[in-house]
Structures are given as C-alpha cells and as structure tokens.
Amino acid sequence: MSNDPTTPVPAPVPVPDSPFRPEPGDRDLAPQFVLPLVVRIERAAPPPRTDALETAARAVLVMLADERSTGDGEWARAVRDWQDARIRKVVRRARGAEWRRAEALPGITVTGRTAEVRVFPPVPLDGWPKDLARLQVSGTDLDDPEPPADADPTAPVLWMNPDLEMSAGKAMAQAGHGAQLAWWELSDGEQTAWRDAGFPLSVRTADPARWPGLTTGALPVVRDAGFTEIAPGSCTVVADHPALRREPQM
C-alpha cells in the first residue's frame, strides 16, 4: 500500500484558491489533515484489486455525503479543516484483531462485492489514533483474478492511467481523489441522486488510445503531486460522471 499525500488537480486550470493547486500556496501554511482509509486484507481471502479500488472511492463519497460531515455535524469541522488545506488520503491495511480495533473507532465501513474499506473522519497529519498509526501502509498488493467486465457507460467511471504502475494503496487513494472531484462538480440535485442510488461507479484502466482525449476534455482530472511512486504532475484518474459529460461545441 502507499502513503499517498498526493494532490488531485481539476483540469485544465486549477482555481487559484483551490486545495488542489499544484504550486505552493497559503493552503500549505494551514494545519494539514489526512483522510484515513483502511482496507481489510485477510491472508486467506484478499479482495480483488478492482473491487478494493471501487469500494475505496465509494467510501470517500459516503464520508463526504454523511450528515456528520456537513453543517454542524460532529465531523464537519475536521472535514472543513481537511479541505481547507491540501487534500490528502492515506490507505492502510488491516486483518484480524487489527481490523476489529479499527472498526471500534468512529468511522464508516463500506462494503463492495467482497472488499471492505473503513473510512474515518480526517485527522491531523501527525495526529493519527494509535490503532490506525500502527497499521501497515506497504507490503501487500492486490490482483484481479479475472479481467473486470466492461464498465457501464451510463454510470460513473473512474478511468485510470494505462501508462502508470501504482500499488493498490496508491491506486485506491487516487480513485478516491477522482470520486471527490466528480462530487464537487455536481449540482446539489445530482449529488442527491448519486447518493440515493448508493454511489454506483466503476474503476477501469483506460484504453491507451483514448487516454489523451480523456485528459484534455472537460472531465475532472487527478494530477499527482509526485510525493510517492510516480512523477509530479502525472495524470492518474479521469472522473467520468454522466452528468459531467459535455457535448462538443459546433
């Protein structure tokens, strides 16, 4: 897995006061927070990679949409502080008693077909709860036993860069970034519809021939800050939500 203090950047030009701007700015001077995600990986039955990526992306959306994260909710201040600085997500892994201790902490468990991911309210970058801080970031990767089915073109798809090699943890965090960017671009009504449907989405690797068009269109693009695994500025994910598709101008 990968500690992923990366920065997703909306395409094509970041807003000057955005938490996703690639250049150093005032947001770097603010207290830094991180959104912890823990994926359950039991030795005998690790989840398929794609299922883990999709479940992590949904977990981020569930946290953002939860009533405790908005308004006067108990997590709202932490979520605001997190979004006022750099947007950081870190994926760790747990099994057995580690997972049970993680489940005892305030958070939300999201279940995929077989994957389980628990997302927690943001914490200070250097202030992790001890039961999360002791969990491993690296050491276990995930594979798909069979190629995933084609994505449903009528549902949201998070397209991964076909030219980048990423660990499962890094890719899970990047998928979460993509889901978050899509969420921010939607209207209130579109957000409600997606939430009420249970946040359906797919994560797929883009066709190499299609990737350049995806990254230069109107869809939100995640660009990595380059702190771990890949080069700064790399486009990692394109968030393809049907409501964000724009017809080309004639």
What key attributes describe this structure?
250 residues; alpha+beta; six-stranded mixed β-sheet; 28% helix
List the helices and strands and how they pair.
Layout: E1 3-4, E2 33-40, H1 49-65, H2 76-84, E3 89-94, H3 96-103, E4 108-111, E5 116-119, E6 123-124, H4 130-133, E7 157-160, H5 168-185, H6 188-196, E8 202-205, H7 211-215, E9 221-223, E10 235-240
Parallel strand pairs: 2-3, 7-8
Antiparallel strand pairs: 1-3, 2-5, 2-6, 4-5, 7-10, 9-10
Helix pairs in contact: 1-5
Question: In words, what does this structure look like?
Answer:
The structure is a single chain. Strand 4 and strand 5 form a beta hairpin. The strands form two sheets. Strands 1, 2, 3, 4, 5 and 6 form a six-stranded mixed beta sheet that branches. A four-stranded mixed beta sheet has the order 8-7-10-9. The N and C termini lie far apart (45 Å). The protein has 250 residues and is of the alpha+beta class. It has helices at 49-65, 76-84, 96-103, 130-133, 168-185, 188-196, 211-215, and strands at residues 3-4, 33-40, 89-94, 108-111, 116-119, 123-124, 157-160, 202-205, 221-223, 235-240. It contains seven helices and ten strands. The model is unreliable at 9-20 (pLDDT under 50). Helix 1 runs parallel beside helix 5. The radius of gyration is 17 Å and the shape is globular.
